[in-house]
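Sample 1 of the test manifest.
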Amino acid sequence: MWAAVMGRPAITQSIRVRRLSDFVAGVRTTPGRLRLLRAITVGLVVLLAVVGTLAAVQATAGTKAVTGTSEPLVVDAVAIYSSVADANTVAAQAFLSGGLEPAPQVARYDADLREAGRRLADSATRVSTSGRPADAIRTLSEQLPVYAGLIQAARANNRQGLPVGSAYLSEADRLARTVMLPAADQLLAEEQQQLAHDYSAAKARPLLALTAFLALALAGVLGVTQIFLSRQTRRTLNPGLVASSAVLLVLVLVVGVITLLQSLRFADARRDGTDPLDRAAHARIAALVQDSDESLILVRRSSSADFEADFQAGHAKLLGSGGEAGLLERGGAAAKAAEAYAATHEQMMKTLAAGDYNGAVALELSTEPAGGASAFAALDRAISAEVSDAQQQFTDAVAGTETMMSALVVLIPIGSILIGLLAVLGIRPRLEEYR
Amino acid sequence: MRIKRLAFNIALIAVVAGLGACSESPQPPPQASAPSTTAPATADTSCGDPTASLRPPDQLPAPGNMPEGSFMATIAARGRVVVGTSQDTLLFSSRNPFTGSIEGFDIDVARLIAQAVLGDPNKIQIVVIPNSDRIKDVQNGTVDLVAETMTINCQRRAAIDFSTVYYQAGQKVLVPTTSSATSLDDLGGKTVCAVAGSTSINAIVTSPAHPKLLTEPTWGECLVAFQQNRADAISTDDTILAGLAAQDPYAKVVGPRFTDEPYGLGISQAHPEFTRFVNGVLAQARAAGTLEQIADRWLGRYSAPAPLPDARYRD
């Protein structure tokens, strides 16, 4: 009758007021409390579905990034650095012996440049168009043809017997050392950082923790509801709520097992794959720098002791010094190859110090078993084997993780909805008794 | 009569003053006088005659019989002469692309020394040093001597010793064949390349036409800059330019010499007996015509044979 006097808006207002005040007053009554518990349950279920799905989506995206993008990018970056460094050293060595460059050296140089170009193109498709990795890739893509042009000019002049060829070689070498190799180095560092970042994104710790908390809260509310109901009614168990709790338990178990599995697999991938890959990558770079230093000592015929000091620093990095572990596994094939390489280098430096330049050059380029070229080739092969090994371990460890995580993206929302539905269906008959 | 007397007195005073100036402490770096296009710039004489070296002994010791304690004995004991030089100055010391060995005028002169000390011209060890390190590497003993188209001047004489002059060069300019420039004065606003640490830079930076200077580590790399259009010209000794122009049909060397560049072997002041020995070897080579033959072998094709300068001694 209030409503009839006040008009329509007033009616809805007063109905609302009546409902709210009724509700508040009704909390003291059993149906009111039931309704409250039902509301909280539904609210938690919705939150659980949303947060849980978000967590699953992030974990899946992170896993995909680790396995499909970041790790391949790290491998590509190592390959780019190696190709450019090797090409540069080989180009310099090709000039050492005078006359036309030996065909195997030319072939190796060409193969290196092709590899660098191919890896650059692959990497370009995987990185986003802005950011430091993209900048590094752009620099390398721009300078690679310039570098190749300078080497070609060096070769053309060399072929005609014009000494200016070695000046072109110096220019190319400077371009490689001051622009291209630092860019490749930067690319590698950025990709390694990105990989570490993706590992933690794949774990989605904060969101998973929140999901777990919500699941716990939901379990608590369901438990309270069931206890409340069994006290107020003569029925001990409510089938809907029991079913709902069972589904919640199953969901929690499944999610728990999957995330645990993913965590273990990733730990394996890191220990057997990514970390050894990092070490092998740095070892490869250190070995290449050593090779380049050795060539420069001969090409420049310089009195400067800088390159020799650099060579020894690289040796210390590879095999460790002063009790610190080196990049290479002690006693492994690569470590032995590094020792052998250092020994041939020693021999070459002695020959050079005795004034026999031509002998030193012959020793460095020799493909005999005890020669410099074979020793370095053996070292490079051994380290490359470590790189591929680490890559394989990684692939094996992460096999299937992406599928597991994408299963969660489906399971969590469906499970949550099921829990909510069962809970509501369980409460409804009890509520209807009070009408 | 009186005027003649006056003139004689003035000349006498000048000579005495000049001799006195020789023993003065090192002078500040010489300012190159403004290069004219018609006559070579006057050389810096603040230390007297920088090309005057130490007089050689009348009789040179035979190879294998070097006096005890002398630097030549040290070299003999080591078994080779360590020579500091470049490896891409064509005609003077550059790498032969066909054989991989370094050869040229400077190398041949160094081989004369090796022949005299060790009896074998092949017993030289070549160490490549950039122009800017020449003085340092002689002083600290990294090399026994420097044979790297090194111009003798008072500033350098303060730090190291020089042999007598073994070749007289002069600065010129290298330009594209399509250019009408004939000297630095015509290159206002253009980029001229030179090597850091060379005396050639002086003339470029003090030229009234104010060309822009580009420095590279070696003369070969100046040619690369020229071929890549980063430099419009190169300026240095005509002998070096001849070697560069020989490698590029689109380059030509123009104009008269506008500086005097007497070449000497750089030797440390710590062992004057070695300087005397080297001067003795050079004197013998001059007398026997060997030095002329070497000059002809390397430079005959590119320039009219310049008369080899006489040796000058200060004691």
